[in-house]
Amino acid sequence: xxxxxxxxxxxxxxxxxxxxxxxxxxxxxxxxxxxxxxxxxxxxxxxxxxxxxxxxxxxxxxxxxxxxxxxxxxxxxxxxxxxxxxxxxxxxxxxxxxxxxxxxxxxxxxxxxxxxxxxxxxxxxxxxxxxxxxxxxxxxxxxxxxxxxxxxxxxxxxxxxxxxxxxxxxxxxxxxxxxxxxxxxxxxxxxxxxxxxxxxxxxxxxxxxxxxxxxxxxxxxxxxxxxxxxxxxxxxxxxxxxxxxxxxxxxxxxxxxxxxxxxxxxxxxxxxxxxxxxxxxxxxxxxxxxxxxxxxxxxxxxxxxxxxxxxxxxxxxxxxxxxxxxxxxxxxxxxxxxxxxxxxxxxxxxxxxxxxxxxxxxxxxxxxxxxxxxxxxxxxxxxxxxxxxxxxxxxxxxxxxxxxxxxxxxxxxxx
Length: 415
Prior knowledge:
Layout: H1 3-11, E1 31-32, H2 33-42, E2 53-55, E3 60-61, H3 65-70, E4 75-77, E5 89-93, E6 99-103, E7 107-110, E8 116-119, E9 125-129, E10 137-138, H4 155-158, H5 177-193, E11 197-203, H6 207-214, H7 216-225, H8 227-252, E12 258-262, H9 275-296, E13 300-304, H10 313-319, E14 323-325, H11 336-343, E15 348-350, H12 356-360, H13 365-379, E16 385-386, H14 399-412
Parallel strand pairs: 4-11, 11-12, 12-13, 13-14, 14-15, 15-16
Antiparallel strand pairs: 1-3, 2-3, 5-6, 7-8, 8-9, 9-10
Helix pairs in contact: 2-14, 6-7, 7-8, 8-9, 9-10, 13-14
């Protein structure tokens, strides 16, 4: 059974030969570049080859083929098939002094305090990374200082936030004929020349985009106190998203197994909104997009949502959710046993299979192995699990623990 067959079997809620393994198929299932450099050093990989840090905001590296083969990785970010030329990259120095490559298309400024700013093409500073920080934080909210959500929206305003800074392949303009052909040909080539299951990031965030535009505090108030304008904003986002989804599905829908949506809907103690607000304000709009995908392709809906979203899961499933990530089992009501028992027949768990917060970062390799074994036994029973840790492997995770985790996933994942 090859990787694509293995994941497709899991997506059909059937047991494959083993639990599929993911490392870096999307921007919340990967590894920080500092941790990746340490892993490469531990594995004695080519010292003259620099890691490619494709996601500057979270400082994430693409895992190279040698590492993916070594650890039996089954899924791939479609973006890996772009920016293949060395001319597309430039050297960058990380916080620990190690080197990597970053995409040349990024607009970056560095001030006298060595604070790094990410800019859009208009010159707006959208994100900043202080010298001591390992990540980029949003620093501009286009509608934050308004008394309310505006009555009309300009497309350039809706893209004026740090998460609109592209990573491959979203650096390509799908409405430009030549760039769109490059996107289609790249994904087709990935499909025809590898057997990875392909994940295409589409984003299409709703709640999160509201917070990116208005700021978290404002938007949390908006969705309760100003439902009319909130719904109007979300409807405009859905309208734009459907145009993008239609174009992508028509062109690459036959090559891609999963379309990855994002919307962090919960925190440590519960969802950011009541189930009633989710059902009234967000669910119909998620459903409209997800129905379109299901009606027009065989692609599965992969939703990245951090936090405790147990109370929202029945509604998300009703809206058309197929795959949940990162399965943050360290939050309230998200115990793996509970999730598997209540929702295991309805959704695939893409994550939740190693505790990144307590075990991966702070435990011994043996602790990591035992944690992985226990979680696979729970979440992998009868199929329905793609192995991934809970969110990204952060910069301070010891390489020995990364190796132990990935080896354990393969060792204990066989059916």
